[in-house]
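Incident review: delayed structure delivery

Summary: a single-chain prediction request sat in the queue longer than the usual turnaround. Root cause was a stuck worker, restarted by the on-call engineer. No data loss occurred. The affected request and its eventual output are reproduced below so the record is complete for anyone auditing the incident later.

Affected input:
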Amino acid sequence: MILAFDILAIATALAAALLWLQASQRRLRRIARAERLDAADLNRIIVAINRAQILNGRAALATGLSAIAVALRFALDMALR
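Output delivered after worker restart:
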């Protein structure tokens, strides 16, 4: 049982790291002050922000699951002593 919580904690921590890495790799194109924004530019910016927000939310969920698995592992370890 302890090994299962260890594996779960490692897997969810790696998932969180990969999701945050994906979210941080997507860059927005910078726009100049003189450039005019049209509807396609605004749509592209909004979609990129929404995708990053979704990935960050998934990474936060994976981090929470990892913390729960570690806490359960420690609690189980203390209960078996």
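Verification: The chain is about 80% helix and 0% strand.
Action items: add queue-age alerting; document worker restart procedure.
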